Amino acid sequence: MTRLSRRLFIAGATAAGAAPLLARSPRSPRIVNPLVRNRADAQVFRHTDGWYYMTGSVPEYDRLVLRRSRTLAGLATATEAVLWRHLAEGPMSGFIWAPELHRIDGRWIMYFAAGPSGGGEDVFRIRTYAVVCDGADPMTGKWSVLGQLETPWDSFNLDSTSFVHRGVRYLAWAQREPGIETNSNLYLAPLRTPLTLAAKPARLSVPELPWEIRGFKVNEAPALLARNGRLFLTYSASATDARYCMGMLTAREDADIMDPAAWTKSPVPVMKSSPAHHIYGPGHNSFTVDERGRDMLVFHARDYETIKGDPLFDPNRHTRVQPIHYASDGTPVFDPPVGNGPLA
Predict the structure, then answer these.
(1) Residue 344, class by beta-carbon neighbours within 10 Å (0-12 exposed, 13-18 middle, 19+ buried)?
(2) Is the backbone of residue 21 left (phi > 0), alpha (psi -120 to 50) or beta?
(3) Would you say 297 and 45 are in contact if contact means Cβ atoms under 8 Å apart?
(4) In Å, how far from its chain's centre is CA 325?
(5) 3-state secondary structure of 12
(6) What was the pLDDT predicted at 21?
(7) What is the DSSP letter of 124?
(8) Is the C or the N end of the chain the one with fewer CB within 10 Å?
């Protein structure tokens, strides 16, 4: 989100690497897009317990939610639990953005971004926080505030995602860095704790290409896919209307991923609006696998182009899913966003 604006998940695994082995389920119910309506910034993953978990931003931006299903298609009708609501006052009393669920050191932790209530520009004083579950079941356990993410700058930041690569847990996120005239850039750092960094952050990407600066200068919503000997870090760019699109950074899996020079940016968007399919503003993605073991892209988009008012307050960014294909060199190909209806 950006004037706001805004993931790592590797197909349900807890470490960057090969996809987990999954039982094939040829009788699984068919996915129909949009998978879940009115859920933006969606994160879907298949955990090692066999459940698909899903969270995302609600149009009211006032609570953290979670649902789960034994099938990917089943998320459409799964019961949704409210884990936590914004506070009555203080820095977490306003908008709640872009939650993401992770299992870290034996605990369920959900990152999210929040700002204060009260109106005016202060409501966009967005910072990243986390809540933690007191039990083994994230749907039924009690959630409480763990704290605020500590970064080198007290500035707009959001879209935290965590992953393990070569035995080290990392955090990737979006932040506005003082002295750089952008809305948000992409950063990466190893974690000491879920909310403290173990090293100085690496600035991986600044919005500078024409398709990254339409409306706003935005790089946000990182999400990691580790496949075919490389790390693919997708992200979202530009304003949150039909100009919103996905970019990608690529690094070798044996590279020093804290070296920005190890990452190569795609010169063009890897997914953008498809007027032919009537899908607009695809972005803020995550990754999962279906019951057949296929890599799947999860993202939000609208099914109309014209928006009245601020696009952040248009509720119809729906969660969508579609398969990922791979080019002959092992690079993921996301294809144009497919239209509404049953997924082939």
Answers:
(1) exposed
(2) beta
(3) no
(4) 20
(5) coil
(6) 41
(7) G
(8) C
Distance CA 22, CA 13 (A): 11
| DSSP category for residue 28 | P
Q: Is 208 a residue of the active site?
A: no
Look up tokens 């070296």; give the residue. 259
Cα separation of 178 and 176, whole Å?
A: 6
User: Which residue shows structure tokens 């990922």?
Assistant: 324
Q: What strands, in cross-sheet order, belong to the sheet with 219-227? A: 219-227, 230-237, 245-252, 264-265
> How many Å apart are CA 41 and CA 131, to the nearest integer?
18
Q: Would you say the C-alpha torsion 215, 220, 226, 231 has a positive or negative sign?
A: positive
pLDDT in tens, 309-322: 999 999 999 999 99
Can you give the pTM of this predicted structure?
0.93
CA distances from 151 to 105, 173, 221, 230 (A): 21, 10, 17, 27
Distance CA 1, CA 217 (A): 11
pLDDT band at 329 (very low <50, low <70, confident <90, very high): very high
- Res 27: pLDDT: 67
Q: Is 295 a catalytic residue?
A: no
Quick one: how far is CA 192 from the chain centroid?
Answer: 22
For residue 168, CA distances in Å to 250, 258, 260 come to 19, 12, 17
**Burial of 338 (C-beta count, 10 Å sphere; 0-12/13-18/19+):** middle
For residue 287, which of 222, 225, 197 has the smallest C-alpha distance?
Answer: 225
> What's the rounded Cα separation, in Å, for the pair 160 and 227?
21
Among 220, 241, 295, 303, the active-site one is 220
Please identify which residue in the block is written with the tokens 């020093």: 256
Tell me which amino acid residue 330 is.
Answer: G
3-state secondary structure of 123: helix
